[in-house]
Amino acid sequence: MKKELTRQQYLDLYYYMRLNRSVEDMMVKLFRQNKIVGGLYSSLGQEAISVGTAYALEKKDWLAPMIRNIGALLVKGVRPRDIFMQHMAKYDSPTKGKDGTSHFGDLDDLHIVSPISMLGDLIPVMTGVAMAGRYLGQKTVAMTWIGDGGSSTGVFHEGLNFAATQKAPFVLILENNLWAYSTPVRKQVPLANLADRAKAYGIDSYIVDGNNVVAMYSTAKEAVERARAGEGPILIEAKSFRRMGHAQHDPAEYVPKEMRAYWEARDPIALYEKFLTSEKLLDARDKKEIEEKINALLAKEREFAENSPMPPPEFAETGVYCTGDDCHKIRAKWERPIAEVTPPRSSVEAVWTVPGFGSGEGSRGANAPMHFGDTQAAETLPAGAGKPAGKPPAKVTPQKTVKTAPTGASRKARR
Amino acid sequence: MPGTNGGASNGTSVTFLEAIKQAMFEEMERDPAVVLIGEDVGVYGGAFKTSEGLLERFGWERVIDTPISESAIIGAACGMSYCGLRPICEMQFIDFIVCAFNQITNFVAKGHYLWNAPAPMVVRGPSGGGVHGGPFHSANPEMYFVHTPGLKVIYPSTPYDAKGLLKAAVRDNNPVLFFEHKFLYRRIKGEVPAGDYTVPIGKAVVRREGIHLTIISYAAMMHTSLEAAEALAQEGIEAEVIDLRTLLPLDEETILNSVKKTNKCLVVHEDTKTGGIAGEIAAILCEKAFGDLDGPLMRVTSLDTPVPYAPSLEEYFLPNAKKIFSAAKELARY
Lengths: 415, 334
Ligand SMILES: Cc1ncc(C[n+]2csc(CCOP(=O)(O)OP(=O)(O)O)c2C)c(N)n1
Ligand SMILES: [Mg+2]
Hints:
The complex is a heterodimer.
Chain A: H1 7-32, H2 47-54, E1 62-64, H3 70-76, H4 80-88, H5 122-135, E2 142-147, H6 154-166, E3 170-176, E4 179-180, E5 183-184, E6 204-209, H7 213-228, E7 234-239, H8 257-264, H9 268-278, H10 284-307, E8 352-354, E9 368-370
Parallel strand pairs in A: 1-2, 2-3, 3-7, 6-7
Antiparallel strand pairs in A: 4-5, 8-9
Chain B: E1 12-15, H1 16-30, E2 34-38, H2 54-58, E3 63-65, H3 70-82, E4 86-90, H4 101-108, H5 111-115, E5 122-127, H6 142-146, E6 152-154, H7 159-171, E7 176-181, E8 189-192, E9 205-208, E10 213-217, H8 220-234, E11 239-243, E12 246-248, H9 252-262, E13 265-272, H10 277-288, E14 298-302, H11 311-317, H12 321-333
Parallel strand pairs in B: 2-3, 2-4, 4-5, 5-7, 6-7, 10-11, 10-13, 13-14
Antiparallel strand pairs in B: 1-8, 6-12, 9-11
Helix pairs in contact in B: 1-7, 3-4, 8-12, 9-10
The structure holds thiamine diphosphate and magnesium ion.
């Protein structure tokens, strides 16, 4: 690891990784005391991914977590009590007991979209969030995560391909932890590097050591800023390992001992502590202070969560529909002049006209306007294409406007 | 058509298709948060030309041509709606909506209930048979979605309603599915008023008053039911015809009021029989008007098969005025 951040940034990354692990440790205790209603998933050993990537976002940016991204939620500003209460199905939880785990969001303040269980579904949704941010002039970036297993879903491809065609400011973190439940990654995808999937969509990708929080952060930061600058979506493959079973119930006996041992020796927090110590960014006293701060915070948060009531049964019947303005005042937050997207300024000129095109019923008939691609396409049209010629130009394919991935996804790879 | 425009108007007579186009145009004109997203909706103006001219007027950012990715269309629209936009998604044929079934039923529909996230979006597209579209271009998939809490489902039968309900759908804070029977697109004309108006979602309308039985229908079959009602009148049977217009939420009040008056009910739908809305209406009548019924609830629906291609097969498959006429006559005499 090379020194490139401010001391505060280094310590923030450390704090959030420790907080992430402590929150999950505490939930294991709650689980063993039967205080958690459903299953409990662990991100043990993957904290550097959630924390490093989410730390690259600005406050106005959007994220949508997957089940192993509690670290990302904490970085974005979610209180540990909310995570505890979600798992305990409490009435004061963000979903008031209607859903559990990390399935909650905050549209107004933290800009978090709730995941659903169906893997991959967030990818087109966050693409839409990214497109809306761009449309409204907010200069926001949307980020979400997907597993090695989740990258096999159809909606992963539909979503990422659409994001690529739209050049949406969207960053997708592919957490390759080598396992999808009991299925090893080689049965999921016949690729050595899942980042190679990016080539299929003509987008850039990175490969990062998912147990190196500084590498995760700086790669994500670069990707986020490139996406924000209009370079289109970017895929980051984080290579790591799922240290626990799929969830608490799964002893993961299918994982080879040697594999586990290899990765346990590369614990992201232990590695980072070593780095911080050698760079003199953290000493024993700092470490103890941080530990005490986290312990005190979590004791309070846990107490609050445990004291929260369960939802009253009749609450089940409420809230299926938005009842209107009294329920939600839905207002787009414009940060660009509306005139840009309303007529006459929104109106687009035909690139060329095609005589007789669509002259069927209900159409304008002769000389219907034709448009092609985006406005850039006009420059690449053959001469004379702008005129209403007798025949449409033979070759109308514009130059690719989407930047293609460099050969070998590892142009910018950090291994 | 009686009651088509639901009131006075000095507007013009337009096709069903034109009414839909006007609704989108006017809503996009009114509110820059409204965008259109779908396959071939921009340059081409939509497979049925419902969005013709919108690209020229509103530009690339608001009329978004997509790859052939229904889940991405619905998913992206959902994401946009979380940011305060009001996207209208076009399914090129409504048959393809099931490619995005998961996105609609799990993501879009559950968000408000689970995490207080309204998704103000519309999913619309051409549906229905009778045009020899075959098994994959004739679907009536409304009941998959009527079974999904969190959605609203509209299936209009007149240009007036199509325009007013589509505008209401765009302004609604919930995800609304809007089915456009393609048989009606160019065959049905009706008056629409000159100015802005909406038709309330969740309200049925009595298209024809009668006393001997109630015929409940919607979409293209509403017209077929009215045709049958005219023939019944020749025989002295006065049928009351109700147009549901919205299937979810269902207007129980209008249904119950009518059946309490006529004491007999026939439901006509182009959707297949098993699991169609007629079953739900039968259950409601049993629960809330059992004592008022003087006869069995009867159904005239399509067969429980896929929509067949050959005209002779499709005609046999679909309900028609004759089938409605004989069922209604049998019921009236019961
Ligand atoms: C579409 C879909 N199919 C099946 C499941 C059930 N399921 C939940 S997690 C999981 C494994 C996911 O593996 P991966 O994407 O690699 O994520 P990881 O658990 O390793 O973080 C499966 C099969 C699901 N949630 N969604
Ligand atoms: Mg995995």
